[in-house]
Amino acid sequence: MYGDPVSSSMARLNQSDEVLGELQFSFVCFLVGQHYDSFEHWKRLTSLLCECGEGAVKENEGLYLTLLGDMHFQVRIAFVPLRT
């Protein structure tokens, strides 16, 4: 697209991969950077994906299988007790 390595690698992704990547990126920005707007964005994307009807899930089965795996690890990371 723009000639740089990131744009070139992103050109191979489909839209569902981009949505999952954005979901993961917003989670990391919130977790590492303590950026509240990133958390709000993560919540909106998660709600959007989780509130879809059964037809969307059947049509995009791979997306939802990957989403479940991603959510599993995000919840595990988010609820690790802090050690003092």
Explain how this protein is built:
Helices cover 76% and strands 0% of the residues. By secondary structure, it is an all-alpha fold. It has one domain. Helix 2 (15-33) runs parallel beside helix 5. The longest helix has 19 residues, at 15-33. The chain is globular and about 45 Å long. It starts with a helix and ends in a 6-residue tail after the last helix. The relative contact order is 0.11.
Summarize it.
With 84 residues, this protein is an all-alpha fold.
Annotation keywords:
84 residues; mainly alpha; 5 helices; 0% strand; globular
Which term fits the overall shape? globular
Which segments are poorly predicted (pLDDT under 50) over 5 or more consecutive residues?
Answer: none
Average predicted confidence as pLDDT: 82
Overall radius of gyration: 15 Å
Number of helices: 5
Largest sheet descriptor: none
| Helix proportion | over 70%
